[in-house]
Design brief:
single chain; alpha+beta; 3 helices; about 240 residues
């Protein structure tokens, strides 16, 4: 009888393992390239990364905030990562094609093909590497929006401080979202932050069990309960399948 219970319990655990998959290993998405330093505002670049048997794709776009206005910007991809040329930076010369907060606050929005936990981002320095991370509820539409419109879409935000070295910046929350923004430091009076975004590391959200898998789990627990009732009554437990 005890061995019978162990067999049923093992089957139930196997069903649960299939249904509630734990967080997979981190996927690294490389954001490097060889583009011009200026071009059409609002352009989108697509990247992907693979790991642990899965491929995650992300679409990236550039934005810049000045006062109460946010406009689309040009997103370049370079050997050191993504950079932003906003509408006041001309052709992006003199390393102004970075993610910086000199005059305007530049940021990159990353729209993933599924909800993810953004774990970290590698920042190549062109000044300080203080940065802000924001999980967004929705993707901005159009090329112009107000600061209050953007702020209302922020589900969570955190800041990472790192001085003047290139570094792997950790995103400090456990929020899950398919839309994330990475900016130069978006708080305080620091205007010396400037970097390129070389890669990001993400974990895909665990899969939600399908109804059929939930049924397998319930059947496994039913089997355990039936076996235990049979043991208490002194009768062998039996499982029947229609």
């Amino acid at each position: 009888m005890r061995q019978h219970l162990k067999t049923i319990f093992a089957a139930a655990l196997a069903s649960m393992a299939l249904a509630a998959t734990s967080a997979s290993a981190a996927v690294t998405i490389n954001l490097t390239g060889n583009s011009a330093t200026s071009g059409s505002y609002g352009n989108v670049r697509t990247f992907s990364g693979s790991g642990d048997g899965q491929t995650i794709t992300v679409s990236a776009s550039a934005w810049s905030a000045q006062g109460s206005t946010i406009t689309s910007a040009y997103l370049g991809s370079y050997s050191n990562g993504l950079g932003v040329t906003n509408r006041s930076e001309g052709n992006g010369g003199s390393n102004s094609h970075t993610i910086d907060n000199a005059g305007q606050l530049d940021f990159v929005i990353l729209q993933f093909d599924r909800p993810v936990d953004l774990l970290s981002a590698y920042l190549n320095k062109y000044g300080d590497t203080d940065a802000s991370f924001m999980a967004l509820r929705s993707m901005p539409s159009g090329s112009l929006l107000t600061l209050s419109q953007f702020q209302s879409s922020i589900a969570a935000a955190t800041h990472s401080f790192g001085g003047t070295t290139s570094r792997l910046a950790l995103e400090g929350t456990t929020v899950i979202s398919n839309i994330w923004a990475v900016s130069a430091l978006a708080t305080g009076t620091d205007t010396n932050d400037s970097f390129k975004l070389r890669y990001v590391q993400v974990n895909a959200a665990p899969a939600v069990p399908e109804p059929a898998t939930w049924a397998m789990m319930l059947l496994g627990f039913f089997g355990i309960g039936a076996a235990m009732r049979g043991r208490r009554s002194g009768e062998p437990a039996a499982l029947t399948f229609a």
